[in-house]
Amino acid sequence: MNDFYQRKDVSKDTIEFTITIPKDSFNQSYETLMKAKAKETDIKGFRKGKVPAKLVETQLDQSVRLETLEKIAPLYISTAIQKESLDPIAPPEYKEIPKLEVDKDVELTITVTVMPEFKLANLKKVKVEKEEATISKAEVDEAIEDIKKNYKTKEKEVNDAWAVEVGKMIELPEVKDLKDLKKQIEEAMKAQKEHMLLHQRQEKALDEAIKLCEIEIPQPAIMYEAHERERSFRYDMQQKGVKVEDFIKSQNLTIEKMRELWEKDSKEALQTDTFLKMYMKEHNIGMNEQELAVRIEELKKSAPKGTDMSVYDDENWQAYVKNVDLKQRAFEAFIKEVLGEMHKD
Question: Is 73 helix (H, G, I), strand (E, B) or coil?
Fold first, then answer.
């Protein structure tokens, strides 16, 4: 299988291959498949499995040629991609349906989408203002009112005795009186708000870094990821016995709006993944075998009772765990570099 293709770089992310499948190779696969079809085909006047191949060929020629192409083409396509050391980010696409003529080579043209090369920008340019977390008296009063509505207490009036009783119910430490309860509620609300604001700053910093690096994901990759999300969603609904149309209607959405959201989420996820991989490479962030083994043991110990432990020995699963952990390390290092702080849940 040498010199069976020609490569043409269409753009920084699209490569076109013109692939020639020799007629002898195609015919051999075609004849093997046609013989199998002859054994399966029922034609009046012949016993099953005894139908002459030529008669079957008259009826099924074109469909069997298409099926032959479906079986043999992926081998030629994957070999060309491997020989060119490419890493596609979406399935190859046919430019057009190839002509399948008798005793002629089959020529097909496909496009392969790859991730363009991006450079890590000067991250010192990432600037995100820090918003102070403040809690107003009105917010505290509203929280007190919510507690009064949602908890049944012996004390009916909002006073010191009620505050002490409520403090025990919501597990606040040693509430002395109403003033103390309000103070502790304010502190808890402030901590929660600080956490939320920090996450927002982290997201803004990441968005700004992606823009600085000018990371634009090729559309075929975005659409492929979006289609995979829709496929997963439909499978999940099927497993739960829920009709997709009924679920979408219950959420006041349309399938068009869902697809728009999947496409948006896919683009953002791919941009984030690309940036973190760049950051990992630039800062030599890695994980050796010993570190991975320790991480796997941690996951084993925290696994729910009844978990099939054989999954932890699967190489693909371990590679997935390693990838997730490395991206988390890269994200934490990035946040520390640009914001100087990293909140861990």
Answer: helix
DSSP string, 235-263: HHHHHTT--HHHHHHHTT--HHHHHHHHH
Strands 14-21 and 5-9: antiparallel
**Spatial CB neighbours of 59, under 8 Å, sequence gap ≥ 6:** 41, 43
Specify the DSSP class assigned to residue 130: P
* DSSP at 123: G
Q: Which two tokens stand for residue 242?
A: 């829920």
The topology (CATH level 3) of 5-113 is Alpha-Beta Plaits (3.30.70)
pLDDT digits (tens, 9 = 90+) for 294-312: 999 999 899 888 888 888 8
List the chain domain ranges.
Answer: 5-113, 115-214, 215-282, 286-345
Q: Are 292 and 318 in contact (CB under 8 A)?
A: yes
At 3-50, the pLDDT tens digits run 899 999 999 999 999 999 999 999 999 888 888 877 766 655 555 555
User: Across-strand partners of 106?
Assistant: 21
Q: What is the largest CA-CA distance in the chain?
A: 97
